[in-house]
Design brief:
Helix content is 37%, strand content 22%. Strands 11-10-12-9-13 form a five-stranded mixed β-sheet, with helices on both faces. The protein has a three-stranded parallel β-sheet with strand order 5-1-6. α3 packs antiparallel against α10. Bound molecules: arginine. Arginine (ARG) binds next to β2.
Length: 258
Amino acid sequence: MKKVIALVLAAVLCAAALTACGDKPAGGASATLEEGKLIVGTNAAFPPFEYLGDDGAPEGFDIALIKAIGEKMGLEVEIQDMEFNALVAAVGSKVDVAIAGMTVDEERAQSVDFSNSYYEALQYVVVSADSEIATMADLAGKTIGVQLGTTGDFIATDDVENAQVSRYDKMVDAVNDLVNGRVEAVIIDKNPALVFESNFAGQIKALDGVQFEFEKEYYAIALPKGSELLTQVNDALAKLKEDGTFDALVAEYIEETK
Ligand code: ARG
């Protein structure tokens, strides 16, 4: 009798799992994708890569790039703005792919596949204009603001000795707390650091990550593991580099923060 119950239970669980996966089979296309729509996750609070435009819609380099990639693939692109820390888990369930200035990272690569990299990046350290912080040794024991789940978070947590790490959902909130004196440094990617530096001109300064011996990072698009979209996305990216579209987007969105 117990065996029968176990079998029935197993069958019910399998059926439930199948229904749950029904519209997004692993590695296959989502129902919306089959209708020609690519659902893209981002965290639109990371200028110049993604931010909310005056009309409240996400825009920026990554958004323009993924739209151009979608066009090459014959797909309409729909952007979904969410927390950065939720993006990796959302790929293959809530969204088809994610583009968010996301650094290729071993741990993330256990849950998602990454496209070829489209941009080289580096973490920077942002401090108040009169701060004497200049090296990794100076950061030890300091209060450091980061965006939750980012590589800046990993550096502050794992590499800075005795750091007290304050984690924010949005980078700008970390920067605001730097301006208010609640944290002594913020570790964020170079280009956003330079945008914030000019937004808070005279109050904060962005220090080159080279001074801190941070490692180079590479941004890529995250896709579901084993997705057939991977080669299509890489092909589209290669075409956009060939036909000059990619460089035009760099010039339009990133040039002034390079
Ligand atoms: N490059 C960093 C990382 O991958 C930060 C990315 C943050 N992106 C964003 N859209 N908020 O962890």
